[in-house]
Structures are given as C-alpha cells and as structure tokens.
Write a structure and sequence with these properties.
2-enoyl-CoA Hydratase, Chain A, domain 1; binds acetoacetyl-coenzyme A; 2 domains; globular; four-stranded mixed sheet; 257 residues; alpha/beta; six-stranded mixed sheet; 12 helices; Lyase 2-enoyl-coa Hydratase, Chain  A, domain 2
C-alpha cells in the first residue's frame, strides 16, 4: 500500500486508516481515494475487523479533491471519472466507520467525513463545501448528505457561500457526535470503534444499514425494513448468546454467526 494511506491494525477489532498527503493537506487525489476504497474492501472481507477509523492530520482531515488533478480533467474526463466508483465503494462499506476529524474537512474532505457513521471532531475542525468558490459545486454527495445531516438552511448556507462551520456549530447542527481536544480525536474514535467491534457483527451490520436507510425511505418502508432486519437476527447464534449471557449474568462471546 503506498504511503499516502497509512493502515494500522486490526487491533481489538479496529483498523485505523490515516490519510497521509501532508504536502497537499490530504487532498484526495484519485490514487489516495482508490487506496482507501481498496483498503475498505480488504477490511470488509477481514473478519477480524469490526469497525474502522478514518483520520487525517492535526491540520487537515482532507482539504478536498485534488484541485490540480481536477483542473486537468475536461467534461469527458469528469464524465468518465474513476473516482465515482471509488466513492461508491466507500459508501457501501457495511461495517461502521468512525471519522476522527481535525483541521480542514473541506469539499471532498467534508464529503468523506460524511461517509462515516459517527464523526468525532477536534475543536479546530472546520467543515465546509467551498466548491462554489471554484466555480463548481460538490460532486461526491455534498449537496445530498449535508442537507440530510444538518438541514436545508445550513446546507444551503454552506454550499452557496462556501463558508465553513467550526466544530461547535457542527456539533449543534448534528453533523458530529462529539467535540474534543484535537490530540484526543483518534483515541476517542478508536474507543468508540472498539466498543462497536465487541458487539455481535451481524446485529451491527443490520443496525447500520437500517439507520442509513432512514435517509432513503419513507417511515413506513423504513419501519418494514427494520422489522425484517430484526426478524433476521432471530436466526443468529449471536442473538441466542446475547440473551443467554444476560440471563446467566456473564459477558457474551459473539462469533458473527
Ligand atoms: N488540492 C490540491 N492541493 C491543495 C488542496 C487541494 N484541495 N488544498 C490545499 N492544497 C495544497 C496547497 O496548494 C499548498 O500547496 P503548496 O505548498 O505546494 O502551495 C498546500 O496544500 C498547503 O495549502 P495552503 O498553503 O493553501 O494552506 P493554508 O493553511 O494557507 O490554507 C486551505 C488551507 C484554506 C484549506 C486552502 O489550502 C484551501 O482553500 N484549499 C482548497 C480547499 C478547497 O477548495 N477544497 C475543495 C476542492 S474541490 C472538491 O473537493 C470537489 C469534490 O470533491 C467533488
């Protein structure tokens, strides 16, 4: 794996991916995005991985798509952009993703953070969709995911002015679940990921999918999906183990079955 993406673990069920292009504030060029998508594919197949953490540096989670690379693409280049497939692979990852965000999370960086299921932000984090300043617009889910996460008015404000919001505002808006000192974000994210990695994997997977579907479905469809998923879990050995362990006053030993 080239070193624009550092991979650690799995340790205690958690793999940590660190974006590592310090010379470009972790701008997501195609190679980095592809490496991340491939690493997630590997993590998907690895039963030792229960959850992953994605982070960047103290200064930047990621400052967006690589503007130099983007500038070299014309209309056909954008139409045939391989990045679309990489984004799709990241979006369909079935295990929980925790993002530990410090510094700039702009454009594609904010969009990547929004692919996470739980976001932990350092006090210095700045989330923004500044594409409008470049005469373009968000193209990796920024207009769609942002509105679902922070509501239309703030999403419009961010996407139309290009102005970022700070960590405190992101917390108020519901974009992030916790704000802490920048030095602690990764530790916190790993802690959350480890907690999740100890749960029953099939229940975790179906819970993630069910919560995600709340954005795509109306309430009646979503409730039906939840009920089906809940019913499927009745056939798992881990459900039996979870219920037995509670009644026997011991810790459950989940096996992903
Ligand atoms: N692409 C390529 N290089 C980038 C970059 C990006 N998105 N962001 C920063 N860099 C590079 C800078 O060019 C600079 O390189 P040099 O030292 O070689 O000049 C280096 O990273 C450090 O950046 P700055 O000197 O600009 O650092 P700063 O602290 O003064 O400013 C910043 C930080 C406000 C984040 C500023 O770098 C900036 O505005 N970056 C661009 C942010 C942006 O517009 N992102 C959206 C990109 S489009 C997109 O993301 C679309 C999509 O996904 C579909």
């Amino acid at each position: 794996m080239p070193n624009n993406l550092l991979v650690e673990g799995p340790e205690q069920g958690v793999q940590v991916f660190t974006l590592n292009r310090p010379e470009a504030l972790n701008a997501l060029n195609t190679e980095l995005l592809e490496n991340l998508a491939k690493a997630l594919d590997d993590a998907e197949a690895d039963r030792e991985v229960g959850a992953v953490v994605i982070t960047g540096s103290q200064k930047a989670f990621a400052a967006g798509a690589d503007i130099n690379e983007m500038a070299a693409r014309d209309l056909v280049g954008i139409l045939e952009d391989p990045r679309v497939a990489h984004w799709e692979r990241i979006a369909r990852f079935t295990k929980p993703i925790i993002a530990a965000v410090n510094g700039f999370a702009l454009g594609g960086g904010c969009e990547l953070a929004m692919h996470a299921d739980i976001l932990i932000a350092g006090e210095n984090a700045r989330f923004g969709q500044p594409e409008i300043n470049l005469g373009i617009m968000p193209g990796a889910g920024g207009t769609q995911r942002l509105v679902r996460k922070v509501g239309e008015s703030l999403a419009m404000h961010m996407a139309l002015t290009g102005e970022p919001i700070n960590a405190k505002r992101a917390l108020q808006a519901g974009l992030v679940s916790e704000v802490c000192q920048p030095e602690l974000t990764v530790e916190k994210a790993i802690g959350i990921a480890r907690t999740i990695a100890r749960k029953a994997p099939i229940a975790v997977r179906l819970t993630k999918e069910s919560v995600r579907r709340a954005n795509d479905m109306n309430l009646a469809e979503g409730l039906r999906f939840e009920r089906h998923a809940f019913t499927v879990l009745a056939g798992t050995a881990d459900r039996q183990e979870g219920l037995d362990a509670f009644r026997e006053k011991r810790k459950p030993q989940f096996k992903g079955q």
